[in-house]
Write a structure and sequence with these properties.
Number of domains: 1
Helix content: over 70%
Oligomer: single chain
Order of helices and strands: HHHH
Number of helices: 4
Distance between the termini: 74 Å
Length: 163
């Protein structure tokens, strides 16, 4: 066979061109594409870290607001109790009826404020969980190539946050 007989004459040049082609491919990928991919991954990780930090700050702010609210409510309850006791000692049944109406108004306001605080805390927690679930979903997709269902990501984040 003529193809096999000339193999000994041309194999060195073929190996040379193979090495040149593989070297070219290596440098194009290693020098051109890999740094761009790494830069994109690093930028995304920084964005995710920033988002998580902002969510944590929002959570801390909500906790501080709730603590301040509780202190004001405790002070308001203490003041209301003191006023109610003074009114009971100073007046008769008529004054006692007026104080009870005022206490009911205060309790309604307190309950309204408590409901607002609970809603705010719940909204902040839901937003934190949503952002963390999206970030988790994207990180798993980018790092492993596995598509994670949004419900699975959300349940995993809830499990971690409730620990």
């Amino acid at each position: 066979m003529p193809q096999l007989s000339q193999l000994s004459e041309v194999y060195l040049s073929q190996f040379l061109w193979l090495a040149i082609a593989l070297g070219f491919i290596f440098f194009v990928i290693a020098r051109g594409m890999v740094p761009k991919i790494q830069a994109t991954v690093e930028a995304r990780e920084k964005q995710i870290a920033g988002d998580l930090e902002a969510a944590q700050k929002a959570r801390v702010g909500a906790d501080e607001t709730e603590a301040a609210w509780r202190e004001r409510m405790d002070a308001a309850r203490a003041d209301a109790a003191r006023i109610a006791q003074e009114a009971k000692t100073k007046s008769g049944l008529d004054t006692e009826t007026k104080v009870k109406a005022a206490a009911d108004k205060i309790n309604t306001k307190v309950e309204s404020a408590q409901a607002k605080i609970r809603d705010t805390v719940s909204a902040a927690r839901a937003e934190i969980e949503s952002v963390a679930a999206e970030a988790t979903q994207e990180m798993v997709q980018r790092l492993t190539g596995i598509a994670v269902d949004k419900k699975e990501a959300a349940s995993a984040v809830k499990a971690e946050l409730n620990v």
